[in-house]
Structures are given as C-alpha cells and as structure tokens.
C-alpha cells in the first residue's frame, strides 16, 4: 500500500525518464525531449567517436584566470544603488559585484553598466578557444532556402533582426535594455521573496524540483546526490522545490532529502507557470538562488554526473555559465516558435547556426554578466507567455520526426529555446565555450534509474534501532 503511494511522487524532471527510454531510438516516429538530456552510455560512445564531439571536447582546456580583467576596474561604487529606494549606498570592492548585479539594485548610470558588461564579455571571449567557432552565422533565410518571410511587417510592427550583431555593445544592449526584457517591480519582489526564503550563503547550491509524477527516478537522483556529490563538494546546500506534491509525499521528501525543501510560489507568477511544461519555474528559481551562492547547479533526475564535477564547476566560475549541450541536438529555430525570436527582436533564421542546449543540467556563476545578460533576460522571457509558451503547450510539446532543418518552429522547448537564444546572441561564434557536452563526465551510473531510496533508508534505520 505504502509502496503504491510512493510510486506517485518524485523529483521533477524536465525531461522525464519516460523520455529517457526513447533515448537513442532515433528511428522512432518522434523525437522527445528526453533525447536531449539522455545520459546513456551508448550515446556517449557514439558521440565520442563523432567528429562534431571532438570539437566540443576541446573546450575543456584549462583557462588562465589571470587573463580575465577584474570587473572592479570598470565599476565604480558610486554608480550603484542598493535597492529601489534610490539612495546611493557605499560598497567595498568585495561586495561590488554582487550588489551591482542584484536584481533590485540597478546601476544608477546605465552607460556604466553596459560598459562593465562589455568589459566582462570581452574578457570571457579572450579566454575562449580560438579553434572552436560556430560557422555560417550570417546566412539569411533565402540563402539557406528556408521558407520564412522575415521582412519587416509595418502592420504588426515587427522588423526582425536578420544577422546577430558582432559588436559587443550591441549584443549587451539587446539583452539588457530591450523593453520586452524588462522585469516589473512585482516580479522583482517575487524573486526577492524566494531568495530570502533560502538560508545561508554557500559556495554551491545544487537545486532540483519535484512534482507528483516521477517518484522512483527522483529517489535515484537523490541517492546519487547524497552518495556521489555530497562527499566531493564542500560548502554547499541542496535545495529542492516542491512543484506540486501531496502532503504525504512532501513529508517523506522533507524527512529524507537532507535539503532545504521549499514550495514554489506559483500564485505569485503568471497563470502559464502552472503549466509545468512551460518551465517558467526554472529560470525563476535559478535567478532567485544565484543571490545565495557563488555557483547554482540545476540538475534533473535523469542526469547524473559522476566524474570530475569540480572540473566542470571551475569552468563555470571562469566562463560564467556552462549549460548542458549535446551535439546531436537540432538547430534552435527547428524546436522554437517564431514568437520567441520576435520577442527578442530577431528573425529565427539568424539563429539557424546554433543547436539547442539541453535543460537537464546547467551551472551558473554569480557574477554581473551571468545575472544581467543571461539570467535576467531568461527570467523576463519566462514571465511572458508570449515569449516562452505562446500557444497551448500540448500542441507544440512533441517534436515531429523526421523533421526538417529547413522548417521553423516544429515544436517549442521553452526554457531551452530561450537559453539557447540568449547564449547565441551574447557569445555568437564562441557559443561552444559556454555550453558543455557532459557525456564524458557521465559514465554509466552505478545507481539504477529506478530506485526505492527512501525505503532503503527506512530499512537501514529499522536495522539500527533493532
Ligand atoms: C534600502 O535602502 C534604504 C536606504 O539606504 C535602507 O534604509 C533600507 O533598509 C534598504 N532596504 C533594503 C531592503 O535593503
Ligand atoms: C565588504 O562589505 C561586506 C558587505 O557589505 C562586508 O560583509 C565585508 O566585511 C566587507 N569587507 C571588507 C574587507 O570591508
Ligand atoms: C577597489 O579596487 C580597485 C582596483 O582593484 C582599487 O584601485 C581601489 O582602490 C579599491 N577600492 C577600495 C575601496 O578598496
Ligand atoms: C555615466 O557614466 C558615463 C561614463 O563614465 C559618464 O560619461 C556620464 O557622465 C555618466 N552619467 C551620469 C548621469 O552620471
Ligand atoms: C513578406 O512579408 C511582407 C510584410 O508582411 C510582405 O509585404 C511581403 O509581400 C511578403 N513576401 C512574401 C514573399 O510573401
Ligand atoms: C514577501 O515577503 C515579505 C516579507 O516576508 C512579505 O511581507 C510579503 O507579503 C511577501 N510578498 C509576497 C508577494 O508574497
Ligand atoms: C562558504 O562559501 C561562502 C561563499 O564563498 C562563504 O561566504 C562562506 O564563508 C563559506 N563557508 C565556509 C564554512 O567555508
Ligand atoms: C578528471 O580529472 C583528472 C585530473 O584532473 C584528469 O586526469 C581526467 O582526465 C579528468 N577526467 C575527465 C573525464 O575529464
Ligand atoms: C526493505 O525491506 C523490505 C522488507 O525486509 C524488503 O522487502 C525490501 O526489499 C527492502 N527495500 C530495500 C530498498 O532495500
């Protein structure tokens, strides 16, 4: 009886284990999201042998942090304010970066903010791998024979950008100053409340979310986190969001998770947040948690990293972000509706050179560029149904197969769509340095994908007390 009940809950996975079962049946009639987060051993070997993956793997070369120019040279404390009461606050150098990039503490002087972000972007591009670049970025719809009309439409006041700008200032301005990407006071406060709910300031926060559909997979991930990450990481907190569990399920999780277990406050956000497949919660909680740690690491139940996690984390400290990526993924416009591109001011064709990231794993570093130019626009898009979930998600949840890379918007991948779009705009030909193929860090896990971890813990406790 109890077993049966427990089967109904679990760690929420963006791309569930159900999807994982299809992981490399590429001959199947449809491609599901799980294929994009699969951590299957077979896939690993297949990609390791591919020429494409060889290019991606070059990005793990060590970086000399001394080549990064410190932000502090650019930002003056007098340009900052601590909160919206418009009183300038005094900062020492150590508090400067986090204060500057605080959601509720904008720069007083916008041009200095842009300048600081450009400097930071420049320093990251300077340490990227010169040999690995995205090709054919400037191809237009017509040249690629894509049937998409991206000419200006005065009636609908749409005039999409056809080539992503090379100029660094233009890149930053398009992500930071664009009207559609501004976050209202209401939603800045909502984030702030979520930040306040988390106790302590940590080097690392590992975060996941739970909903009522994948119980044993969730327990499998929890066992992985406890047994394989806890011993390796120092100074961290494990945060788990309740995205809709029953009381009983929630109390089991609270009892065994060794985590900060918090409820996601859906009522403070727009109605589309309640559709979990729109993934509004993810950019939101990452943006809230980044104020409480140097590193936020989001992980799905299907993805278990078991090797050299600190190597990957250290890379994120330098580059600002490491978002999971599989070379087998599709061009972002194939899996993203045109509305999302328009929200950012772009033609979908301008993004054809960039394959979509995977949402199952991402590492975010608490620094100005990551917060202002990546996580804020990501959150801003998540807040607007017209950007992240422009139509009924059920209609665009499935990506048809066989698909055509000449077609735009075959399906919608929400947070993955917008994250890819942002990274493409910001890093352009250096995109590969900010995404990471984690497969080689992810050998076949010793822990089965389905596991009654809570029962195991309870059995052990019984033995001990007997
Ligand atoms: C905002 O700034 C004012 C004036 O500096 C200060 O009194 C207030 O406590 C601050 N509020 C928060 C939430 O930091
Ligand atoms: C810098 O400011 C922070 C927060 O305002 C404070 O905790 C810290 O002690 C200060 N460091 C120095 C070296 O003054
Ligand atoms: C902050 O750092 C800059 C450059 O590293 C230095 O010139 C400045 O004196 C420092 N300011 C404070 C208040 O320590
Ligand atoms: C903002 O900073 C720029 C560059 O440092 C400077 O030229 C400008 O005068 C500043 N504006 C204000 C209103 O302080
Ligand atoms: C493309 O769209 C524009 C604006 O709506 C329109 O004027 C033009 O005729 C369209 N071109 C084609 C080939 O459909
Ligand atoms: C945010 O938290 C504050 C203080 O805990 C509380 O007074 C306020 O009602 C909360 N705001 C929302 C929208 O829940
Ligand atoms: C943990 O890391 C945070 C952020 O770097 C730091 O402020 C805190 O002092 C560290 N705590 C311990 C016990 O090392
Ligand atoms: C893990 O780290 C060790 C030592 O830093 C290195 O030799 C090894 O190649 C790394 N493994 C992977 C999969 O990157
Ligand atoms: C827990 O104990 C029961 C009864 O001894 C056993 O049937 C079950 O397999 C155990 N579960 C686990 C996960 O060890």
UniProtKB/TrEMBL annotation:
Region (Disordered): 34-53
Pfam (any one): DUF1647
Entry's transmembrane regions: 7-24
Biased composition (Polar residues): 34-43
Tagged with keyword Transmembrane: yes
Keywords, in A-Z order: Membrane, Transmembrane, Transmembrane helix
PANTHER family: LD39211P
Protein name: Uncharacterized protein
